[in-house]
Amino acid sequence: MTDTAGLPGYGEHFSEPEGYLDFARYGPPSRDVLDATAAALAASARADHTTVNDLMRAEPRARAAAARLAGTDAAHIALLPNTSTGLFHAAFGIPAGVVLVPSADFPANHYPWRRTAALGRAEPRWLDARPTPEAVRDALTGTDDVVAVSLSAVDFRTGYRADLAAIREVIGDRLLVVDAMQGFGVADLPWEAADVVVAGGQKWLRAGWATGFAALSDRALERLEPTLTGWTGIEDVAVFDDIEHPVAPDALRWSITNLSPVTAAAFAAALELVERVTVPAIAAHVATRVDELIDAVRAHGGEILSPTAPHERAGIVSFRLPGTDPARVAEALHAHGVTPSVRADSVRLSAHASTTAGAVERVRAGIKTAGDSR
User: Fold this and answer.
1) Helices (DSSP H) in 94-197: which residue ranges?
2) Strand pairing partners for 342?
3) Rg of the chain's alpha carbons, rounded to an integer?
4) In terms of Cα–Cα distance, which of 41, 356, 83 is closest to 204?
């Protein structure tokens, strides 16, 4: 391999160790994010009569950047502290009916629907298959009680990438709720096909914890009840007249209270960096690294559990080494400076646009060591 650098214009903003391959769990933030956080905190420490208003300008900036990346406008964006908050908003906003949910999805997309079912509201129906358009179509055949489908854009275990456009065609006018945590900003997907897109910023967006957003379609704004709207999600939010105000007409109705302007500044910096480099460029670099990681794993007898077709995968490579405990594989990778995620039955690698070819060579050496010890 001759390419040893991360994506030019992007990789130089980061300083994680060469062997860091755990972006599906946490994405170390850029120096831009660190600088934005430090500047906002420093300003807050010198607070005067202008400080809070000045800091609050980070929120509309972050909303505007998220909107551009999601293919919508700022009126359809609400900032959130994490993905789960958005999924709970969606779940408690559906007044009644059945929601189709993949049974193997990350638990963040399970518990909101379990909670609504316990209260006699929306009830989950589990899809015991990969959420392909065909599987979703089969699950909907012969039933008219499903009002929404809620799924992950990218599977956290294998990196399988859902075909959102085709699923949109299959489900018709039903709501499509998408957990975009493992794909937003790193996979070039048609987010406008969904009615609700929610994502936290601490993984692939590399914005740090307590950052995130929701993008709502007009259909979502029309159909979802603003059950969890707080005092900042209403009209005339600064008028304290002791009466209940109407909810905001746009996505701001999902606001419960003011979020941290410090994290909003960090989120804006992270989103704007992705914009400058562009998602297609990031996705192309990640795809190259994923190809190389798959080759490295296979070269030493590893079994790939992730999709191998480029159109079906994102930045995750899950594998097992037959005859070797995943914990032992992880130890060997650690010894070569590689940071993976380790599960009971597999090891997960996840590459980003700052990942270099040197990281792939470390993986190759680590798996060889693990295999030799069998």
Assistant:
1) 111-118, 133-140, 164-171
2) 347
3) 21
4) 83
Closest of 179, 103, 153 to residue 313, by C-alpha:
153
**d(C-alpha 322, C-alpha 68), whole Å:** 44
Number of other residues whose CB lies within 10 A of the CB of residue 218: 10
CA distances (Å), 357 to each of 21, 119, 232, 349, 365, in order? 12, 51, 47, 14, 13
Contact between residue 83 and residue 288 where contact means Cβ atoms under 8 Å apart: no
> Residue 141: phi, psi to the nearest 5?
-65, 130
Query: Three-state SS for 324?
Result: coil
Which alpha helices (DSSP H) does 300-356 contain, by range? 326-335
Query: In angstroms, rounded to a whole number, what is the distance separating the alpha carbons of residues 4 and 262?
Result: 34
Report the pLDDT value the prediction gives residue 2, as an integer from 0 to 100. 41
pLDDT score recorded for residue 168: 98
Q: What is the pLDDT of residue 1?
A: 38
Tokens of 110: 């399970």
Which secondary-structure segment (H or E) carries 316? strand 316-320
Distances in whole angstroms, Cα of residue 50 to Cα of each of 55, 58, 59, 360: 9, 14, 16, 49
What gap in Å lies between CA 239 and CA 262, rounded to an integer? 25
User: Residue 172: how many CB atoms within 10 A of its CB?
Assistant: 7
Pairing, β 212-216 against β 196-200: antiparallel
Low-confidence stretches of the chain (pLDDT < 50) are 1-2
Select from 215, 200, 184 the least CA-distant residue to 90: 215
Q: How far apart are the C-alpha atoms of 338 and 345, rounded to whole Å?
A: 18
Q: Which two tokens stand for residue 167?
A: 């699923």
Q: Are strands 212-216 and 77-79 parallel, antiparallel or unpaired?
A: antiparallel
Whether residue 114 contacts residue 101, with contact meaning beta carbons closer than 8 Å, is answered with: no
Q: Please, which residues bridge with residue 179 across strands?
A: 152, 198
Distance in angstroms (rounded) separating the CA atoms of residues 240 and 18: 53
Q: How far apart are CA 356 and CA 346, in angstroms?
A: 23
**Based on the number of CB atoms within 10 Å of its own CB, is 97 exposed (0-12), middle (13-18) or buried (19 or more)?**
middle
Give Cα 76 to chain centroid, integer Å.
Answer: 18
pTM of the complete model: 0.96
* pLDDT at position 374: 62
